[in-house]
Amino acid sequence: MKNKIYTILFAAVVCFASCNLDKESPDSIPFDKAFSDMGSIEALERGAYSRLRTAYSISSMILPDLQADYVHAISGFSNTYGNVYQWTFSQDDGDIATVWNDLYGGIAFYNFIIEGIDSKLGFEPTASERTALNNIQGRMYLMRALSYSLLAERFCGDYDAATAKNEYSGVPLVTTYDSSKKPARASLYDVYDKILKDIEQAKQLLADQNGSPNSTTLNLDCVLALEARVLLQTDNYPEALKKANDLIGKQTYTLIDSEEELREMWTYDRSPETIFQFYASKTETAYQWGYYFYNEYNNGTDNKQYTMYPDYIPAQGCVDRYDAADWRRTVYFLDCTTDAPVDGRFIVAIIKGQSMFARNLTVISKYPGNPDLRTTSAWNYYNTFKPFRLAEMYLIAAEAAVLSGGDAETPLNELRMHRGLPKLPAVTLADVQEERYREMMMEGTRLTDLKRWGLGMTRGKAQEGEASKTGGNPWSYIDFVTEIGSDISKPKGDYMFVWPIPASEIFANQQLGGQQNPGWVR
């Protein structure tokens, strides 16, 4: 019976893997051949990457920022992710359950590969094959550590050494491939302890796998980047500073030098700053990260004008936090204005709920879609996600330095200069917080940052301006956003900063009974 379960799960997972090599299709490999040769194991690894990419979904990475203070929903929006945006979600929310299920589905598969390489090999590997197997296993440890770090960020409170060992403060730890095991929640201390142990395993097994910019293969530099992030999350500021500076000091990656290079990073998915990004092609498509912010009514095919059709637009308070000299102001945002054409076309935006054309409205353009991933001239909004970037290492170094009495000016000012901004004479925690807000917009970190800093959340002033039925005279002054959720303000420590354990998971795993996060209905 257990072999039957393994076979079903194996087939379900590896069918996601894309084979751009001349190998047997991975979903055609039966279970008893899973570890019979290197080709089969490599197919499993492709399945693992596919699992990880699924876990880094729009629900997982955009939802926390929609819940926070970056955006307002436009009048008449589609209500996609509306419950989270409005803070009305519950333990029955399907999007949140999807994040949980995708992360644990991936963990099960990484466990399967780790154990298989340890004990199920059907051949005697050569020396070079053993090295390759070590590397694959190292990437599985890294994927598992990444997954547990995301689970801790989404479904647990902020790490506090005084409470981290409290029972049920973490998430269930599943470290073996056994579908019959349904553990209770571990402590948050134990979860992060396991993450750091997996990081150490990955370091050893990937010691010979140095990275390079824009890598689509997990490598040693990714391990170091995750380690710095986790050490910051667990308040180990001296070590977080050291690890971030170690990676910066390798000089494998460099900060961009111009607005054009910044635009290339987010449009064409290539940059000397990118430590790791997911693979994407015209056939192995990425997610449409910008669809709900940068959707164009005609998908870019109207030769006369661009008509933006977003569900969410940046809060005016968000836009105002970017100085005019900041390169991110014109890369992360697009101003819809009838004052001057862009590429020979004027830009307008539709206010869905009022069937009106707005002028002087700003939309988020951080994920405009990579033209190299289009199959026709129409926009398809595909960009690949970048879990590790050099800019984050500078922000980690600056924050850790501020909180440990180190040199925060050097890393923060280095990043600022490479974003078109002047140096600050002195750097405070508030300065780091502002820079992180600007840099990491819509990368899934905002809710975690607010928890770590012990801050509340207030959606700032909304955009408003002129609109007309025709896109021409007469223009009238209107509110661009829906009133629903527009004025939300939450104090620090509000229980909804921590997502609930999905009710479906509690029903399936009776060990979780009575272990729901504080504030949520049990």
From TrEMBL:
- Classification via Pfam families: SusD-like_3 (PF14322), SusD_RagB (PF07980)
Q: What does UniProt give as GO cellular component?
A: cell outer membrane
Keyword vocabulary terms for this entry: Cell outer membrane, Membrane, Signal
Please give the chief subcellular localization of this protein: membrane
Q: Where in the cell is it found?
A: Cell outer membrane
Instruction: Say which domain of life the source belongs to.
Output: Bacteria
| Record family assignment | Belongs to the SusD family.
Name under which the protein is recorded: SusD family protein
